[in-house]
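Dear all,

This email documents one entry for the complex benchmark we are building for the journal club exercise. For each entry we list the sequence lines for every component of the assembly. Then comes the predicted three-dimensional structure of the complex as a token string, followed by one or two observations. Please use this as the template for your own entries, and keep the labels exactly as they appear.
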Amino acid sequence: MWKKARIAILLAILLYVVVDAWRDQNQNWTRPIAVLLHPINADGTAETQAYIQQLQQYQFGEISSYLRQSAQQYGQNTHFLMLLGRPLQVLPPTVPTQGGIWQSIWWSLKFRYYAWQQQSSVDPTATVVLYLNYYSPKTRQRLVHSTALERGRIGSVNLFSDPQQNAQNEVVIAHELLHAFGATDKYDLSTGQPIYPNGYADLQQQPLLPQHMAELMAGYIPITPQQSKMPQNLEQTKVGAVTAKEIGWAK
Ligand SMILES: [Zn+2]
């Protein structure tokens, strides 16, 4: 009797895990996508605090319309809703910069536990939750790489707390958001250079270099085979065909 009950419980858990993973990897794009953004004062400065206090939800509307238009190019009629959530006090666990597979598995478990801990009943239910870690450009010149998990649909995004960086922050947020739907990076991890052909926005362009736009998941605009520059805003980026396939916008 007990043995049967135990087996039934284990099967139920297994079914839940399988369904949960399947759902995370097969987004239904006909339903509206709600993205909850939690700002975090990551460097603890008064400057970053002031920046977070002036943030308004409508400022993230640029990302919604960009994604809506990008999805439309692949025949998907999807609405994106960017919701500004509560500021949080605790930073997500630091992304391991080196180390093997076990370290990243351990980190992803810690990150999912963090997301579970930070959840509050006042938060609206969202398809994706992004933790926006803001740093003042005065305390940090470069930001470490952001990361998002497809399993669990959560992301830890490092941004600058400077209004002049808002447009570039939007590029970073959109990039990380698509990671949460299964898009892969399209740049060389050692050099940062966009990879040809998947990391190029316009393969028909003659001459091919310099490119005028960035493929969103390549993150940079290739200028020469060795040089690239960061796009200024989302208008200088494009969701390429391979990325569209990875996230399920295209077959
Ligand atoms: Zn990336």
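Observations: Residues 39 and 100 are 29 Å apart (CA to CA). Strands lie at 33-41, 80-84, 128-135, 147-149, 154-160, 214-215, 221-222, 228-229, 237-238.
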